[in-house]
Write a sequence for this structure.
């Protein structure tokens, strides 16, 4: 009869303790330098592309127009009551060439005061600059047009010049807009070619005063 081996004797099974050999941790694998550079380039490209998209989506506010607007009829907006009271009834309104562009809007009109034969002709021009600032060039252009008399109290800058008693020219800058007025006495000839003298010519000395009043009224109307 086979008996069970004695556990605490020398004839039993020997028990062995198996210890697994621990391997040292593997050092982290270094990423190739070109892979780091590629990742940085991709990230920079994404950021730059996002910045360009955001810039393209941004809308610039544009210059302050100070309430000035385009008008359908400049002749209808320019009442010119001060000049009418001095030169006579206004007639023959005519619309000049108009420019309507995203950068600039310009309209003009012409009219006659007094008798059609020997009255006074007036041209009004209104320019609305939507992008660029006309200020730095305004005084230079006025000087080039021989407008030398500065007029205070109208817009940012205003210049006038008397045209030898036969009329006058006015130019005004206010922010992004320019208004110009040119007034001249009309001279006509009879069928024989002789000059028709006006019966009661108006003294145009000091004509800048009513012109100033009408310019101010027009500026108010263009802001309504």
């Amino acid at each position: 009869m086979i008996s069970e081996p004695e556990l605490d004797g020398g004839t039993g099974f020997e028990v062995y303790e198996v210890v697994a050999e621990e391997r040292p941790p593997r050092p982290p694998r270094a990423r190739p330098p070109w892979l780091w550079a590629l990742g940085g380039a991709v990230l920079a490209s994404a950021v730059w592309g996002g910045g360009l998209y955001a810039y393209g989506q941004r809308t610039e506010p544009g210059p302050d127009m100070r309430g000035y607007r385009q008008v359908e009829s400049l002749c209808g907006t320019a009442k010119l009551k001060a000049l009418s009271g001095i030169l006579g009834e206004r007639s023959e309104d005519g619309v000049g060439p108009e420019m309507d562009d995203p950068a600039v809007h310009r309209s003009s009109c012409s009219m006659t005061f007094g008798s059609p034969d020997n009255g006074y002709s007036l041209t009004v021009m209104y320019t609305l600059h939507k992008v660029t600032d006309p200020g730095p060039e305004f005084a230079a252009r006025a000087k080039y047009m021989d407008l030398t008399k500065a007029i205070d109290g109208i817009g940012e800058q205003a210049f006038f010049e008397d045209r030898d008693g036969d009329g006058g020219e006015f130019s005004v800058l206010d922010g992004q807009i320019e208004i110009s007025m040119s007034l001249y006495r009309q001279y006509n000839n009879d069928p024989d070619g002789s000059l028709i003298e006006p019966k009661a010519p108006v003294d145009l000395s000091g004509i800048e005063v009513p012109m100033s009043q009408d310019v101010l009224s027009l500026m108010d109307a263009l802001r309504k």
Observations:
- Residues 74-222 form one domain.
- The beta strands are 90-95, 99-100, 104-113, 120-129, 149-150, 157-162, 167-174, 177-185.
- The longest helix spans residues 33-57.
- The helical segments are 33-57, 74-77, 81-87, 135-144, 208-222.
